[in-house]
Amino acid sequence: MTTRRLFVVILLAQSGCIAVGLTFQHLYVSSGVDLATNREARLDPAHRSGRAEDFAGQPTNLPEANLIEPALLHRTLWEASGITLVWTIGLSAATLFMLLTRFHKTAAKGQQHPDIEALRQSQTLIRTQETVIFGLAKLADSRDPDTGAHLERISQFSSMLAAALRQSPEFRDRIAPGFVQLIGISSALHDIGKVGVEDSILRKQGALTHDERVRIQRHTQIGAECLREIERRLGSTNFLQMAHEIVSAHHEWWNGDGYPAGLAGEQIPISARIVAVADVYDALRSKRVYKEALPHEECVRMIGEAAGTQFDPRVVETFLQIEDRFCRLFDRFKLAEENGVVAEPNLLTTEIKQGVACSI
User: Fold this and answer.
1) Which of 55, 65, 135, 348 ranks highest by number of CB atoms within 10 Å?
2) How far apart are CA 283 and CA 147, in angstroms?
3) Sequence-distant (≥ 6) Cβ neighbours of residue 15 within 8 angstroms
4) In 10 A of CB 342, how many CB atoms?
5) What is the pLDDT at residue 245?
6) Exposed, middle or buried by CB within 10 Å (0-12, 13-18, 19+), for 311?
7) CA-based angle 286:319:260, to the nearest 5?
8) 21 pLDDT exceeds 60?
9) Secondary structure in 3-state letters for 16-56
């Protein structure tokens, strides 16, 4: 309706301007005709008498055959002006109609896919947030000199295990493809609370005292409080909600003997149960200031024995089905670190992509 109104207003305004212009043109031409007629009448008495016989023997430039009555000339001018006005308005209307139609189609085309543009902007914002958050997590993780690519491995282990779990009918409705991708980002924050733990405890080579153990266990609460503050300022999102679950509960045990809240069984969020297995596997296979790295087979044995006590037995069962993928992924990271290069993400996520594709 707005486009139609604009079309009518512009057409009326343009028609009015053309009409005024033609009127002035007509008046100007008419006044010239009247002036010329009056001038000839003053110069030639035959014009005043209107008799043809008065021209006999007298030279003239206006023979009788070429004489035009002023009234007829004025009427012809009005008719010509009217035809010109109609023709000009018609052409203008057609041109204006085509321009407005094109404008309307362009605007409509731009409005056909608003969701796509909104999705594109949303994805850009999400990627930016993920990069910033991962950078903060990496900064916290860098305080431990032996962690290496710990966050990258945890991220991909968690996604791989979640994708495999989704193939089970028991978890298919609880773990969507979006969950698989989300846990890969959220899991990077699992130990962000360690920024509040002293270096003397984080880097201690010997066994921890009771007080030191209590202190290091507080990293889950510190991280949870940090994420709550972020949610308070930015608003809650799926990413922050899952990150909060993981940070708070990835040290909870299936039998209730974990910390900080002593949750048990299904009380522990599935995201935290997945990250718990991924985190322990990576910790066992990695060298720390307080321990040497263990071979893959020993890590698998220890995690299998902890099913039903420390870990969700169904998660462990799925882990045992894909433990060879964990081994290959860890070895690729290790090889990249030994060669002093950054592990190629596309190569490292091949196993994960295959798992996600099979789980859809």
Assistant:
1) 348
2) 9
3) 85, 89, 92
4) 10
5) 95
6) buried
7) 70
8) yes
9) HHHHHHHHHHHHHHHHHHHHHHHHHHHHCHHHHHCCHHHHC
CB atoms within 10 A of CB 360: 11
Query: How far is Cα 223 from Cα 259, in angstroms, rounded to an integer?
Result: 14
AA identity, residue 31: S
Quick check: 166 and 172 in contact, CB under 8 A? yes
Greatest Cα pair distance, the chain, in angstroms, is 143
Are 270 and 171 spatial neighbours (Cβ–Cβ below 8 Å)? yes
Per-residue DSSP letters for 139-190?
HHHTTSTT-TTHHHHHHHHHHHHHHHHHTSHHHHTT--HHHHHHHHHHGGGT
Q: Which residue has better confidence, 298 or 138? A: 298
Tokens of 279: 């985190």
Q: Hey, how many other C-beta atoms are within 10 angstroms of the C-beta on 319? A: 26
Name the token pair of 49. Answer: 């008498």
Residue 75 has pLDDT above 70, yes or no: no
Residues 162 and 186 sit within 8 Å (Cβ to Cβ): no
Tell which residue, 203, 73, 188, 217, has the closest CA to residue 129.
188
- For the segment 210-229, what is each residue's pLDDT rounded down to a tens digit? 999 999 999 999 989 988 88
Specify the DSSP class assigned to residue 208: P
Tokens standing for 51? Answer: 């008799």
Structure tokens at 114: 């608003």
Long-range contacts from 338-343, C-beta under 8 angstroms, 24+ separation: 343/149, 343/152
Instruction: Quickly count: other Cβ atoms within 10 Å of residue 244's Cβ.
Output: 23
> Per residue in 226-244, pLDDT tens?
888 888 887 777 888 999 9
**What band does 193 get if pLDDT is binned at 50, 70 and 90?**
confident
- Give the list of residues 6+ apart from residue 198 with CB closer than 8 angstroms, or none: 215
* Local confidence band at 206 (pLDDT 50, 70, 90 cut-offs): confident
